[in-house]
Amino acid sequence: MANLTKSGDDWAFTVTTTQAMSQYPNSYKGTEINVYDLAASTHMSPDRHRFTEFREIPPRSITAADKVIFNATGTGTMRIATPNGDKMSYITLTNVLYCKDLVFTLVLLC
After folding, report:
1. What does the pLDDT look like over 1-16, one tens digit per residue?
2. At residue 40, what are phi and psi to the nearest 5 degrees?
3. Alpha-carbon distances of 4 from 11, 14, 60, 106, 109, rounded to whole Å
4. Closest CA to 33 of 109, 106, 87, 104
5. Pairwise CA distance, residues 35 & 5, whole Å
6. pTM to 2 decimal places
7. Which end of the chain has fewer beta carbons closer than 10 Å to its terminal beta carbon, N or C?
8. Separation CA 6–CA 12 (nearest Å)
C-alpha cells in the first residue's frame, strides 16, 4: 500500500509493501512522486511528460520486487526537482526507463 499526505506545500509518501511499485492506484494519477532508492537497478518513471529527451524502445520486461512483471517501452532524460534545505535543486537523470504502469518515478542513488 502506498500512502500520500499533504501539509501546506509539503508532501510525504510511504510504501508499506513492495506491491506499490507496480500497481497504480487511481487516486495517485497525475501526482508526480519521486522515490530515491539505493537498491534500484536503474531510474524508471511512469511520467512520460517529464522526459526532456525520449525515444521508444522495444518492450523490455522488468520484474519488480513483488515478482510482478511490467514493461519499459521508452528511455530518455529527465530533469527533476529535489528538496535542498529551504529551496529546490534540479538533477538531470539519464537513461531513465519509461514504465507506464509504475506508481512513482524511481531514482537510483549511487
Report:
1. 444 444 555 555 555 4
2. -65, 155
3. 7, 7, 29, 16, 22
4. 104
5. 15
6. 0.70
7. C
8. 6
Residues 6 or more apart in contact with residue 72 via CB below 8 angstroms: 44, 57, 59, 60, 62, 97, 98, 99
Q: Are 54 and 93 a contacting pair, CB within 8 Å?
A: no
Query: Burial level of 39, CB count in 10 A (0-12/13-18/19+)?
Result: exposed
Which residue matches cell numbers 497525475?
30
**Average pLDDT value for residue range 51-57:** 97
Phi/psi for 67 (5° steps) reads 75, 10
CA neighbor of 76 nearest in space, from 103, 110, 99: 99
- How many domains, the chain? 1
Which grid cell is 76? 530518455
CA 23 to chain centre: 12
Domain that residue 23 falls in: 2-108
